Amino acid sequence: MIPSLPTRVMVCAVLTAALMGCPPTYPKCETDEQCKEHGEVCVQGECKECATDTHCKAGFVCDANKCVPKPECKDDGQCGANKKCHSGKCVEAAGKEPGTCKDVSECGSGEDCKGGKCVPKGPGAACSAPPTEPTSPWAPVRFDFNEHKLSAPAQQTLATLADCIKAAPNTKIVLEGHADERGTEEFNLQLSNRRAASVKRYLMDLGVKDSDIETVGYGENKPATSGSGEDAWAANRRVEIRKR
């Protein structure tokens, strides 16, 4: 049986549409032209308000594919004296006098925060900082649970320590490894030795001589703080650095 003419026309139309494909339905898209009716552009297959700042009007920027007012600032350095950046606007730093600080982050390059004031760093200031200061290169190296690998912050601190040791002739150190109370005594002793060895190996990679470094592991037997809980455990997972 031969199909009627209307049937043949319909079949041809369906086949043509299948071959040519249909344009995607909004907000799906393949080209910017398919989003133009809505005043948008095609971004990774979807119509969005913007892809770059050029798609926004003057005074606006593209943030997460939406045009938003251009912020006055992104950080404190873009604001004037005695001002800070808050929610994209420069505002007065309430109660802060020029040259005062709470920590070193509020001081300029080459300055340190001492007694609430920004003062120039003296030569070797970092090397002479006591181990009680968290940023001191002599501060204990901290570790994650059951880990002896060095974190990125620990590596940065040890790089400063290596410079201090190499700059001071005849400086010799002892690396004392420690663990928290969890696990067997034998396991914790081995873990504390691995932690001390990890610090030594990194310092040697940075040029400190093997003969200038001694290591010892104490396991869980010399905790920095007593108690059971994550705060105490974190404080006890460490390698302390002492001069000898």
Structure description:
With about 240 residues, this protein is α+β, with helices and mostly antiparallel strands. It folds into 3 domains: about 25-70, no CATH class; about 75-120, no CATH class; about 120-244, OmpA-like domain (60s Ribosomal Protein L30, Chain: A). Helices cover about 25% and strands about 20% of the residues. The chain contains 5 helices and 12 strands. Strands 9-12-10-11 form a 4-stranded mixed sheet. Strands 1-2 form a two-stranded antiparallel ribbon. The chain has a two-stranded antiparallel ribbon with strand order 3-4. It starts with a helix and ends with a strand. The model has no long low-confidence stretch (mean pLDDT about 85).
What percentage of residues falls in helices of 4 or more residues? 25-40%
Number of helical elements: 5
CATH class of the largest domain: Alpha Beta
Unreliable stretches:
none
Topology:
Layout: H1 5-20, E1 41-43, E2 46-48, E3 60-63, E4 66-69, E5 83-86, E6 89-92, E7 111-114, E8 117-120, H2 125-128, E9 141-142, H3 152-167, E10 173-177, H4 185-205, E11 213-217, H5 230-236, E12 238-243
Parallel strand pairs: 10-11
Antiparallel strand pairs: 1-2, 3-4, 5-6, 7-8, 9-12, 10-12
Outline:
With 244 residues, the chain is α+β, with helices and mostly antiparallel strands. The protein contains five helices and twelve strands. The chain has three domains: 23-69, no CATH class; 75-121, no CATH class; 122-243, 2-Layer Sandwich (60s Ribosomal Protein L30, Chain: A).
